[in-house]
Amino acid sequence: MRYIAFIRKDPDSVYGVDFPDMPGCISAGDTIDEAVRNAVEALSGHVRMLEADGDPVPSPRDFDAIANDPELAEDREGAMTTVVPLIRDRGSTTRINVSFDLGLLEAIDATARERGQTRSAFLASAARKEIVD
Asked: Which of these, 37, 45, 78, 105, has the minimum number of CB atoms within 10 Å of its CB?
């Protein structure tokens, strides 16, 4: 699931991010990239809180619906638009079976060791980065 986000920057401020389909969910960052990375975490945390409180999670609308919503005209003004993936951290792990070329697997293991990570932690981190970027 992906949510449309608005990014704004006022003079002498950081980049702010908000979600028209997720009221109350905001984030910020010193750069656009940092703001978007932080928005991924903010969206995940916001949804986790909604679910914990038993509140419904709003469905995301597509870009055309956001762009044509007259109630968002003021919000869209001066804002950049991006798409932020919802990555739900469920708090549990699942064992999977994947196949890699042996050379790639050796490179993954070597890099994970250099970083003090397990293979699983490295692959999860790489997957998150790929989903967000």
From this structure: 78
71 and 97 share one domain: no
Pick from 129, 23, 35: nearest CA to 80: 35
* pLDDT tens-digit series, residues 45-55: 999 999 999 99
Closest by alpha carbon to 91, among 59, 34, 55, 52? 52
Residue 60 has pLDDT above 80, yes or no: yes
Among 16, 130, 2, which residue's Cα sits nearest to residue 63? 2
Task: Give the chain's domain count.
Answer: 2
How much is the average pLDDT of 7-12?
A: 92
More confident residue, 33 or 132: 33
Nearest to 44 by CA among 84, 94, 92: 84
Determine contact, residues 36/29, Cβ cutoff 8 Å: yes
In angstroms, the CA 123 to CA 125 distance is 5
Cβ–Cβ contacts within 10 Å for residue 50, how many?
16
